[in-house]
Prior knowledge:
Shape: rod-shaped
Helix content: 55-70%
Order of helices and strands: HEEEHEH
Strand content: 15-25%
Number of strands: 4
Amino acid sequence: MEEFVVLVMFGLILFLAGWHAREWYATYLMSRFITRFEDNAREALGELRRETIKIKIEKHEEGYFVYNLEDHGYMAQGKTRKELEENLSKRFPGKFFAAEEDNLIEVGFKS
């Protein structure tokens, strides 16, 4: 009978040790996953920032004009929003453009 109690206690100790090892391993894997995800997100965000040009859009009688917000240099023009976007894409392939929300409302691109 004593041997049975010792075996049960030994089995219980092994079960608990396995349970804690499983929890530790799951925590380790999640930590590794989150670290890689954060690194990839940080890298993608940095790349997006390098590829984004901040712009200001002006509306005139003959259409829309776009200027670089940093150096106020002329970038493109178009009679419609679609034509403006096409001209920007042709002149600056692979780049993204960001205008302030107030500016988009001002020229009528957003309500």
